[in-house]
Amino acid sequence: MRAGVLGANDGVVSTAGLVVGVAGATGNRGTLLTAGIAGLLAGSMSMAAGEYVSVSTQRDTERAALALERRELREQPEEELEELTELLQERGLDRSVALEAARQFTERDALRAHASVELGIDPDALTNPWHAAFASFLAFTVGALLPLAAIVLPPPAWRLPVTVVSVLVTLALTGWTSARMGAAPARAAIVRNAAGGALAMALTYATGSLLGAAGV
Fold first, then answer.
1. Any residues with CB less than 8 A from the CB of 144 and at least 6 apart, and which?
2. Residue 7's closest CA among 173, 148, 176, 174?
3. What's the pLDDT at 121?
4. How far is CA 183 from the centre of its chain?
5. Among candidate residues 193, 175, 155, 149, the one with its CA nearest the CA of residue 19
6. What is the pLDDT of residues 108-161, one digit of tens each?
């Protein structure tokens, strides 16, 4: 859920910056729509591809770690039992209790015990790159649709103010939501989010205006 909120936030800021920048150069609805759709597709595909590559690498690393652990359990079970015992001791158990717990864990499912305690991995819940890619694509797309609609649907005189206000309100909401999920102070997250979005729109609008005035 938190990743979805942050992905949508990226979609809002990226697309808002793009369409506001284009609006600084031209008020043509077709141009704004084309730029917005292009930015939406480019951004969502980039997010999905990046997430797929990142999570695929993580999954490969997890699989390799599990394969190594499986081999060590097969080739040196006593050393692995001692390692698990020491890890449990580091978590606050007495030596005798840790040794007994390690033995019971090993009898039930040695690989799962080492994966959980030593590696922090659940063998049955490895990360899925396709799920991550689709979630990133969807979150970015949903976020990008707001500034795109705000810049093309209102009458020309209202496009920019409607876009700016709607984007800032949305960024304040996503900042509040992400802060609540992380049990962090909401005010700082809201200000940070809204200020970042406002700065992005101001810079791109100024750039678009300058380029438009120069006839570029």
1. 11, 12, 14, 15, 36, 39, 40, 43, 44
2. 174
3. 86
4. 18
5. 149
6. 888 988 888 888 888 888 888 898 889 889 999 999 999 999 999 999 899 999
Residue 17: name the closest of 139, 145, 164 by CA: 164
Those residues whose C-beta lies under 8 Å from the C-beta of residue 163, and which sit 6 or more positions away, are: 16, 19, 20, 23, 147, 150, 151, 201
Residues 6+ positions from 129 with CB-CB distance below 8 Å? 51, 52, 53, 55, 56, 59
Query: Which pair of structure tokens corresponds to residue 108?
Result: 């039930």
Instruction: Please give the single-letter amino acid code of residue 74.
Output: R
Across the chain, how many H-helices and E-strands are there? 7, 0
Task: Give me the residue label for tokens 């496009």.
Answer: 159
Q: Which of 153, 163, 73 is nearest to 111 (CA)?
A: 73
Distance, CA of 117 to CA of 93 (rounded, Å): 13
Pair 145, 12: CB distance under 8 Å: no
Whether the predicted pLDDT of 216 surpasses 70: no
The terminus-to-terminus CA distance of the chain in angstroms comes to 42
pLDDT of 50-79, one tens digit each? 989 999 999 999 999 999 999 999 999 999
User: Tokens in use for 94?
Assistant: 């007495």
Task: Give me the phi and psi of 90, to 5 degrees please.
Answer: -65, -20
Q: What is the pLDDT of residue 213?
A: 72
